[in-house]
Amino acid sequence: MAADNRTAVEEFVLQSFSQDPGLRGLFLALFLPLYLGALAGNMLIVVAISLHPGLHTPMYFFLTNLAVLDIVCTSTVLPRLLENLVEKGGTISYGGCMTQLFFLMWFLGAELLLLMLMAYDRYVDICRPLHYRRLMSWPVCALLAGGVWTVSAFSTSVLTGLMTRLSFCGPNQIRHFLCEVPTLLLLSCSPTTLNDIMIVIADVYFGVVNFLLTLASYGCIIASILRVRSAAGRRRAFSTCSSHLLVVTLCYSTVVYTSILPGSGSSMENGKVVALLYTAVSPTLNPLIYSLRNKDVKVALRRVLPASGKGRERPRWNLQVSTS
Fold it and tell me: Per the UniProt record, which residue ranges are transmembrane (predicted)?
């Protein structure tokens, strides 16, 4: 009987990003370039780092993981959003909704963990340079990156498993263009106390704890930079982490807003905008931020892009740690 209740709703109805027919074409023309830009930018980052031996360092290894996460995260949501704009909204099966929910939470959680890990990498590089090769060796980096994907997958499996135990017996209209935990809980006709508790635990770990660790890393970094006597030395030290700090700020600004977002009323429309920020805008901006503010990445990209020439400039390995 429980299984019958759970499968009473076999599909959900997703809202389009806009209910105004006159704006759907405009949003389609805006979101499609965003999606293509996110794919192209992050793929170029992955290819450039892979083909450029000078970028085979821990920082760029983690940046490659971030680019892969951005590709799969935006691909989890944007194709369905574009389809709904063309078809004036649409439906998604129960299994498709749970699958989208699983992968979206997995990739977003992994990105928060990875950003914290990248902050730790910059902390070791700047604050403990003599120990950098030992603390951030390739086996250690591979273990840390694998832990990011595994921990997030485990947490997501628990949350998704709890979601599949709920009964959905109508209504089946999701007030969003994607399947998210808060909107699905509003449709459940089962008690959601356990789900709410586990969501709070996950939010505290992935959001609060990781944010505090990232903040602590940058607190130590800034204190170390301020102790550098020369202005040129301070600029060089800050240039190695300024791009990452900008990405962290962009990511956590959306996380904080989502955490305090009420689950009803006009704020649901605002929630669509926030969801678009972390599923489309951030994946598009991240490769731009890292490439525009990093000479090594720009040199590698010039070697990848035929239209940019062969890139005769010799790259400066400004992230190489001196052990002398």
Answer: 26-48, 60-81, 101-120, 140-163, 204-226, 238-261, 273-292
